[in-house]
Amino acid sequence: MGHFFSFDPESTVATGSDLKICGGYPPPVIPGRTEKMGHFFSSDPESTVATTDSDLSFSFDRNDMTLKFIEFKMKKFYTSDKKIALFNSDVMELYPEMPSPIVIISDGPYGIGGFPGDPPTPDELPLWYEPHIKEWSQISTPQTTLWFWNTEIGWAVVHPILKKNNWEYVSCHIWDKGIQHIAGNSNSKTLRKLPVVTEVCVQYVKKPIFTVDGATVEMKEWLRHEWKRSGLPFNTANEACGVKNAATRKYLTKCSLWYFPPADAFEKLSDYANTYGREGGKPYFSLDGVKTIKKEDWKKMRSKFKCPHGITNVWSEPPLNGEERIKIGSKAFHLNQKPLLFMNRTIQLSSDPGDLVFEPFGGLCSGVFAAHQIERKGMAAEINESVFDKAVERFKYVKTQLRLIQKVFG
Ligand SMILES: C[S@@+](CC[C@H](N)C(=O)[O-])C[C@H]1O[C@@H](n2cnc3c(N)ncnc32)[C@H](O)[C@@H]1O
Predict the structure, then answer these.
(1) Potential cystine with 135: which of 72, 79, 95, 256 (Cβ 3.0-4.6 Å)?
(2) Same domain? 105 vs 152
């Protein structure tokens, strides 16, 4: 299968084995149409939307995110430039094949009955999220950051499940929507609490897993354990790193003042232990007992983070309105559409260009949309077909605008 070309939603052409993006317009008609596959269509020569009622499966080349469709149940997908992929499906169907994301933006149920499938109360959220959280743990690496959006109580009840599945809490960001959010909508005579104008976006990272004698331990303990195993006195770590006392105090301490050793320092510790350490225990600082961890691999042992100036954990921004808000008539199309500002911010903080951003509960796919604008790859699932269609429209509209601008201004 692959090369899905069509400029008319009624016609379908499918051939080859990989999905390719249409290059010309109108596209050539390729012989070999496969009835079984349903409708593949694209109104935009650089993108493809596929619809099928039949079995269509996909997998990813983990390196370049090339989509390969084999045999599976997938209703629709949209892709553009091999950089984004939106799926109209239950995200559960995507997990088994997907590549590791650097960023996960979870904006799923809030336990307020906000959209079909959103439980009516937060009490049900732990059960709802658990299977997803387990999958996120499987697909993620220590480089992955999870941004978990919810209400305060929604987050509170789901936090233990995240923790149980090896997600480490980093920080809670509060979206303060200000008084506009409740203007004209709250009756202080009947309310028994102050009006709520906030949501939270909580940052988690995936803890790397180390084992010592069959037991799972934290990085801090593992580093200390490896040094101890080498038989070298702890203070020789300072000599290894060429510092007075910082190495022992920072990297090999048991206490809360522990620091993650930067790659250079880690390499020095490892080289020193493997040169001067007890012969019988070598290699030290190895995960497989055969080779030591290389500097480049050590860098991947923690999530990316670039701290910007002047931004705190309180994000004061009015509720989404104006041009950015996608509407039907005068009404918001999706009540939960998130501001691109926050999507952009969280992605910038925790990834580099080319990294994969994953939005399991896409909605209008604001996360992937922002990711695309700042040169990350993006992948999202949206279970509801009309919401998915609207998200696709959003991408196509922007692409059309960009093309027009390029045409006029060169
Ligand atoms: C809170 S909204 C996301 C809004 C999004 N952040 C935006 O800016 O537009 C959650 C979305 O997740 C979708 N959803 C719920 N369960 C899902 C599942 N299992 N797989 C894929 N999408 C799901 C819902 O249909 C809903 O549109």
Answers:
(1) 95
(2) yes
pLDDT value at residue 84: 86
Its pTM stands at: 0.83
pLDDT < 50 regions, the chain: 1-45, 51-57, 68-73
Tens digits of residue pLDDT in 165-210: 999 999 999 999 998 888 777 777 787 889 999 999 999 999 898 9
Q: Are 336 and 199 in contact (CB under 8 A)?
A: no
Verify whether ligand 1 is closer than 6 Å to residue 85 (CB atom).
Answer: no
Q: Is 80 exposed, middle or buried (0-12, 13-18, 19+ CB in 10 A)?
A: buried
| Rg (alpha carbons) of the chain, rounded to whole number | 25
Residue 304 C-alpha to ligand 1 middle, in angstroms? 26
Per-residue pLDDT, 50: 53
Residue 64 lies in a domain: yes
Torsion on CA atoms 224, 228, 233, 237, rounded to nearest 10: -40
Same domain, 312 and 289: no
* Beta-bridge partners for 286: 292
> Distance of CA 277 to CAs 70, 148, 271, Å?
52, 43, 10
How many separate domains does the chain show?
3
Phi, psi of 64 (to 5 degrees): -115, 10
Q: Which atom of ligand 1 is nearest to the CA of 359?
A: 6
Q: C-alpha distances in angstroms, 340 versus 133, 214, 347, 369?
A: 24, 44, 10, 8
Instruction: Tell whether ligand 1 has an atom less than 6 A from the beta carbon of residue 390.
Output: no
Ligand 1 pocket: which of 124, 151, 320, 361 to mutate (most atoms within 8 A of CB): 361
Predicted pLDDT of residue 36: 28
**The Cα angle at residue 363 between residues 357 and 368, in degrees rounded to 5:** 25
Query: Is the CB–ligand 1 distance for residue 44 below 6 Å?
Result: no
Phi and psi at residue 236, to the nearest 5° = -70, -15
What's the 357 CA to ligand 1 centre distance in angstroms?
Answer: 15
pLDDT of residue 56: 43
Q: What is the pLDDT of residue 44?
A: 43
Domain boundary pick from 76, 111, 143: 76
Residues 6+ apart with CB under 8 A from 155: 148, 172, 200, 202
Flag whether 167 is in a domain: yes
